[in-house]
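Minutes, methods subgroup
Present: GH (chair), OT, SY

1. OT presented the first of two proteins processed in the latest run. Sequence and structure tokens recorded below as shown on screen.
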Amino acid sequence: MSDTLILIILGICSYFFGNINWAIVISKFKKTDIRKLGSGNPGTLNMSRNLGIKLGLLTFFLDILKGAIPTLVAFFVLRGRVFYNSDFAVSDFAIYLCGFMAVIGHIYPVIFKFKGGKGIASTIGVLIVCESVHGVEWIAIVIMALVAALVFIYFTEFGAMGSFIAITPPAISGSIRLFLFYSKSLYNVTIAFSIVTNMLIFSICFFTWFAHRKNIERMLSGDEHPTSIKEMVVKAKSKKTQKNSNNK
């Protein structure tokens, strides 16, 4: 089977895998619909605000896997191959292609009439895989970005801006890595694939930022919904105490 056909199949599968919205699935088990609560966004922060931090973290973890799994599959299926008449690794292109398709599938899912989440957790999953398969030094950037995002949200309660902090540095580092790996190539095709792959990285960030356009507008007007991690933790402890009290 040709590399092109494999890429097409993996891309389509990644899109439909991205269609699975765990926030909606989990909220249905709780006999409600997260799309009708709070901001209406079927994602981690809205789940945490309305259904508790535990379910929010579960949603976050599952959405990370939604981006990570297609990306990881693409890497293992196509690693070791290079594009014809170049030295550009097919897997370097495939991981971002499948990651992009998974994120698009999350934001614009056909099974939910193209109304999905905002793609941050899935993008984090994509970037974790894209960086980790190239070495510990690259995954360290993802970890630092996530820690910085968490600290920012904790002290400012601006969830959307914290989300941007989580994904933008790893995306930039991925672009830098491609430049370092392929800038000295003597093949014109390699340079072309490097440019296209960088466009995929940019596109992943663009669509996740674009999905947050209303959040950006609210931040600028001062009307953004606060994301208080401290309040979520207090509520979780309060529920646990009440449950223990009822069981006595």
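2. SY then presented the second protein from the same run.
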Amino acid sequence: MKKLIFAIIALTAALATFATENNLAGKTIVFIGDSYVKNHRRPSSEAWHAKASANLGMNYVNCGRNGSAIAFDRTKEGFGPAMTDRYKTEIPDSADYIVIIAGHNDTGFISNDTQQNSWEEFCTALDTLLDGIMTQFPNARLAYVTPWAVDRPGFTEVNSRIIKACGQRGIPVLDMAALGVIDVNDPDFRAKYFQGPNDTAHLNAKGHDLLVPLGEAFIRLISIK
């Protein structure tokens, strides 16, 4: 997996001349999602996407919300409406690039047997979210970063569906589960790189730093038309 990461970074370096011509400085990049974007109890400025955007000279907009789900309204729990509603008013019209980081919280509904038709709801909502953003922001480049692999029911299905739906629309995907940079199931890794030893979602500053080079490479790649 590390070889793949290095290959992506090397490819970006090889495209340095093109990237200079297609300068990202001053462009607006919007990240929308859950606590992976919000960064939970830490400042969003510590997140890899904030640091990568700053390194590229981009205008960074954080539309993360703790506990947010793609398909499910969690207002009663204090986490707000589903992303299928949130994007309509939260993403600014000035967006040149829009990156979704979401899916972690949807797995909880899908794996819960008491939730009727939750899988169908998720699939429909994911399609609605992708199509809606592409329609409302036709001049923006849309991309997706999946959650990292968590050993919990529903994750594999959610991750696979995200990759399939994006592939059908030509949306670039950074599959964090496949890359394996974040080893969330290793307790020693969590103790060093997460906000708490039992945390499976929220990186600390050191954890985010692991992803900054990869994040920069991904942003450069999605800027190529």
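Chair's summary of item 2: The two ends are 26 Å apart (CA to CA).
Next meeting: continue with the remaining queue.
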